[in-house]
């Protein structure tokens, strides 16, 4: 039996279109809590964030925002993420070995999630000094404002800059990279090439400058062609690399890693993604590891799935994966 805490983070402040703020509700409608209980797990706590302050709750809702110096909605997104960090520090517990499931929301939630996890683990008598990350996403999210400002086609949304802020890629926003929602307790970057694997992304999505950054910094990458060749083997390879280094691993799962032609659940379409079965097979490998202690589910837009058939498939894959934990 695994103890599980479910935390809903209903923000869409950093993304392209409205809808993601209802993802947690849709995942519950698809039976996540009931199915986990039926599988023999204990759901020890559930929390819905962004309810403490009216201004923050309002900022978390998507609204049109101009692109200013290559960025959209900077201040409201930062307000939301700092509030999420504060609430997570209050509500999370890792002492009983629980698995924590975070229901987004857009990709920016990963910043306060990792920051809060580090804060809590740092305060232990025998602290875990680092956390591993599996970044399972259709893109590498290494955009920076200058790139977005220089291109008419670049969106300037902040979820496309998530890893730039986590890794402090040169050119990222100082307001984000140094904020409490995006830093370790000592003020350093949350993600480094030594603690993260980029998994399943379309290799044609990153720009040349993104590939240069990945290569020059020695980042661990397993892109779409490698994962499609054998999803289970690729997942085992990524997991083995992290398990040999870390006792606490966070799995970030953006549903846009799945091909939108087959599975159009994601908020923003990616048409060169994994097959749904491949993505779910990899998920089951990752979630079967007792060292994978937390998971974020992001970019689910229920507006794209009125019958909840795709959301249900995601929920069922998560439940199957957690059922395999020893």
Automatic annotation (TrEMBL):
Keyword field contains Hydrolase: yes
GO cellular component, one term: cytoplasm
Annotated GO MF terms: arginase activity; manganese ion binding
InterPro entries: Ureohydrolase, Ureohydrolase_dom_sf
One Pfam family per UniProt: Arginase
SUPFAM superfamilies reported in the protein's UniProt record: Arginase/deacetylase (SSF52768)
Keyword hit for Ribonucleoprotein: no
Entry's family note: Belongs to the arginase family.
The protein, known as: Arginase family domain-containing protein
Protein source organism: Purpureocillium lilacinum
